[in-house]
Amino acid sequence: MNRRTFLKQGTALSGGLVLSGCLGRLGFETQSAWRDPPLVEDRPDAVYYPAIIEGMGMYGTTTAGDLGFALMHSFPHRFWNLTGSRKTKVIVQSDDSVHLMASVWDTETETILPVDVSVEISNSDGRVSSTNLWPMISPNMGFHYGDNIALPGEGKYDVTLQVGPLQTARTSPFDGRFTEGQAATMQFTFDTAETYNLEIRRLGEKAGIRGTVDLMEMEMIPEPVVPTKSELPGRLLHEGKSGDATILVALVDGDHRFSDSDGPFLIVSPRTPYNRVMLPRMALSATLNRGGDAIAQGTLQASLDPDLGSFYGMGLDELETDDTVRITVETPPQLARHDGYETAFLDMEPIEFTVE
Amino acid sequence: MTDERGVPRREFLKSAVAIGGAAAFSACLGREEVDVPTGPDDLSSYPQRQHAWNEVLPRDDHGNVIAPSHRLLLYLNYRRDGQPNEDDRDQVETALRGIEHAYERSGIGLLLTVSYSPAYFDRFDESLSEGVDLPDPEALAPFEDPEFDTPDAVVHLASNTAQVVLGAEEALKGNKSTLNGVDQPDVALTDVFSLTDRRTGFIGDGLPAKNAGDAESVPADKVPDDAPLFMGFKSGFKKNQASEDRVTIQSGPFADGTTQHISKLQLNLNQWYNQDDRWQREAKMFCPYHAENDVIEGAGDNLGNSSKIDDCKPTDETAREMGVVGHSQKSARARDDEDSPLILRRDFDSTDGGTASLHFLALQRRITDFVDTREAMNGTDVTEQSAVGQRNNNGILQYIRSERRGNFLVPPRSLRALPPAQPARDAQEVTHESS
């Protein structure tokens, strides 16, 4: 019996027993891919090609108010949970059925929102699961929310996706927006034949090499990326690297939308290498030095802008040629990591440059 | 020891309160080898404060009050429309006195409170007495969407003896002619009220691990054997609890009463135990300092009479430097001018509905005190200035979902039977001195 035949028969039998047995019975290939996929040896402290890339399927999208919601699925997978710089390897549990993922965006500007998503799943028997998804980053999905979920079996489920208000600051085009929670309801059908047959791409000799795969093309969801260097407003001051993240620093002067006060505004836009994936959930600060004296020091406020996406910024009184700017990463991006990102953006050195 | 169905005695007791009913009660009688003293014939010496439990509860070596282990909340609707009448008041008081005569007021005996919701007080033309802060329940975080409990009344039964809780419940339902050898009145609480919900639970060393099998999604063998709560740590340290004085209403006709907030919080123990490690659990429950310095042994009994939050850095500092703030660290910010916490926790775990949850029952002088404490726990101020998420690395918010919330007034004892919204000044002296 091949795997597909088994799955079909399993579906016909239905029920939780068949499902939970799947993990143990489907054979070495699939079981090893889910439960403890190969982990590359000698991983660099940087973004790298993992051994495998998990396929992803779309359950659907919907809107509630001016927010778009997408719900996606894959087979359960390993990820790494992060608190500060400390990570915990989260392995697939025997009763995990599906890796459920969600993205949320502003439908007016197509801006991905870093707002924590909770899900409540029910079927005709009532509620079966509820969880607060983790903010995550993966090679083919970029920034999203997700968790491994146990379901009682195959079939139709109702799911409510709920978000709170945006916790970061926002620039003037977003004044008064994302200040309240929002909930969206969707339906999905959990079908092991669909989810467990999603592609597992093996990267072979590439595994462990610095680099990453392209983001999946998802027509219905805005890409979780930040602008290219040339798209940044103002004057580019510096392109730095820290913990393998690319950190662009720009200065806008004159009339601008970034703060209420006059004076130049410092924009810091961290992103993943290769794909420009947004990196929210960092704590950054900046120190300005002139002639050896600190002339300004402060927090780079996490913020959201329709053009810049997630960025960090700070209003300045002035910035002159030969001033030095030091940007310190107090907390690296507090995102759970899929393989390929779990060694990057952890030990993040300050970047320092002199204004030209 | 096992019974004829092969259920070990201890296994049976843990689930008996959850199951309830006459059969569970009589089965309990044979299993708990406890001789619970009866209550006095004359109850006039009982304190006006229904919530004055601490004086009769045992304490641990550090002076912390040991919370009664078996709990039951009876959610009740008054059967009559409009304002209550004196006959119904008499019946309620008589039924309550029946169980008080049967069991002494103590840890192994029975502790109880009767409380009333804002919806109950809406029955009256006049508004609730000034000086009582009892708003309708509301969502207490921008990211939660709880349902609101609006029964007329909630009776809270508590004991270290499972059969006492069950026996009291059966008697209140009119199912016992004698209880603990004491004749019960002909009237039942359920003649006056209909039962709309029944919430059960437990707290105490080892009980969560023993009950873990009754709830789905509790990871096997992960809840520590000696932990008093599902999340593995002790709570209710003396210095982190408001005193009964602090939570007591000081003046007006409801003086000696208190307010009560009861929320039902669903716990995600899979994430807590399978996706976080011990360091993260310590940092998130207490503070990063405790995790870094191995301050907590096991469930935290070694902490003594406080959660030692003074050793933690301020929340904004750890949030920026460590990317995480602890639950106790945040909550401790809600204190009054005399550095006292604002709320007195009397919460307990539950497997109601086959789900691991926490019935978070808290007493405070004003509901506003609870709202302030919860606001401190939300840590919204922290998230705006750091990488700490709305829930992620933000205390234990990742692991709890507020499902239900309700606010209640626990009136003084003399007003515990269907109180009016504006009691006469001398109400406390007139009722039920006989019996």
UniProtKB/TrEMBL annotation, chain A:
Pfam family, one: Iron_transport
Domain DUF7350: 231-354
Keywords: Signal
InterPro entries named in the record: DUF7350, Metal-bd_Tp34-typ, Tp34-type_sf
Leader sequence residues: none
Stored PROSITE patterns: PROKAR_LIPOPROTEIN
Superkingdom as given in the UniProt entry: Archaea
Protein name in UniProt: Iron transporter
Source organism: Halonotius terrestris
Automatic annotation (TrEMBL), chain B:
Biased composition (Basic and acidic residues): 426-435
SUPFAM superfamilies xref list: Dimeric alpha+beta barrel (SSF54909)
Region described as Disordered: spans on this chain: 413-435
Identification of the protein by name: Tat pathway signal protein
Pfam family, one: DUF7405
